[in-house]
Amino acid sequence: MWLADAAAPSGGGLINMLWPFVLMFAVFYFLLIRPQQKKQKQRNLMLNQLKKGDKITTIGGMHGTIVELTDDTVVLRVNDATKITFERSAINNVVSAETAAE
Known about the structure:
The chain is α+β, with helices and mostly antiparallel strands.
């Protein structure tokens, strides 16, 4: 008699099957997607606030001071005589934000 009860279809079968997927998506969103979006937003804000005179570090580890800026490139002065052009996206972080002495 208990075999007949086990074979009877339950009314909420589809909903019970979807709960693990909804829960898994929520975990992925709060642990992976949302922090990555927040980090990308902070990086874009940092890249948009660059100005002449800022001391920065590139992704490759090059330290320098911004001499010129365009929409997509940055010219860095790495010592008294050397200037190097980088893509704006190659900047890792701003070491110190200072205004250019003009």
